[in-house]
Write a structure and sequence with these properties.
Layout (H helix, E strand, L loop, with lengths): L20 E5 L2 E5 L6 H5 L5 E3 L3 E5 L7
Antiparallel strand pairs: 1-2, 1-4, 3-4
């Protein structure tokens, strides 16, 4: 998985921007940026994991960044 300079955070698998989290939609998981994230992932708090019937969203915790 491509990482940002300094290996702080993964890059979006779609466009290469800094990723905000991982979304698993059924059988497929993707590391995505805010532009490509499902609204559920975008609305999640940093560090939050949301588990649905067939979807899981993990928002990266940004509190340690910087």
């Amino acid at each position: 998985m491509p990482m940002t300079p300094g290996d702080k955070r993964p890059l979006c698998e779609i466009c290469g921007k800094e990723a905000i989290g991982i979304q698993s939609l059924g059988c497929c998981a993707s590391v995505v940026c805010a532009d490509h994230a499902d609204p559920t992932l975008r609305d999640a708090a940093p560090g939050e994991t949301i588990v649905g019937e067939c979807c899981t969203f993990l928002r990266f915790d940004t509190s340690a960044d910087g």
